[in-house]
Specification:
Blueprint lengths: L2 H27 L7 H29 L6 H26 L5 H26 L14
Length: 142
């Protein structure tokens, strides 16, 4: 596996553990009014699930297309932005729970969105480079 695949999968597992710990904390203190529900949810969805999907996609889709990944550098930038965006969003929810400004949260939400767009671009350009599927020869007509 490539380094980028390994790092996305490592990050996914870390976010999964943190999300589970937040879920256990939520069960302990009570769900109603839990201030970190958004962090728990986003660590599960953007952290655990999306990071795992990114990692697996970076490993599998180039192989399916028969070509190398379009840009390893773009994938690395996406890894950094995805993590910065998600951790910033989590911090933004902490700020919001203390009646703080939405600006911090919005900035990091945009960083996360950019990381996802970079992934999509990298995958589209990787898949676009795929050679056409071989055609089956027509049966002989006698």
């Amino acid at each position: 596996m490539s380094n980028i695949t390994v790092w996305f999968i490592r990050c996914a597992m870390i976010y999964f553990v943190v999300a589970i710990l937040l879920g256990l904390h939520m069960s302990w203190v009570g769900y109603a009014g839990y201030p970190y529900i958004q962090i728990h949810t986003h660590f599960n969805l953007l952290g655990w699930m999306s990071m795992m999907i990114f990692g697996v996609a970076y490993h599998i889709l180039p192989r399916f297309s028969g070509r190398p990944l379009w840009s390893d550098k773009l994938a690395l930038v996406q890894l950094y932005l995805a993590n910065i965006g998600l951790i910033g969003m989590a911090a933004g929810w902490v700020i919001l729970s203390g009646n703080g400004s939405k600006g911090f949260h919005i900035v990091f939400s945009l960083v996360e969105a950019v990381s996802i767009v970079l992934f999509v671009i990298n995958m589209f350009l990787t898949i676009k480079a795929a050679p056409p599927m071989p055609q089956k020869p027509a049966p002989d007509k006698k």
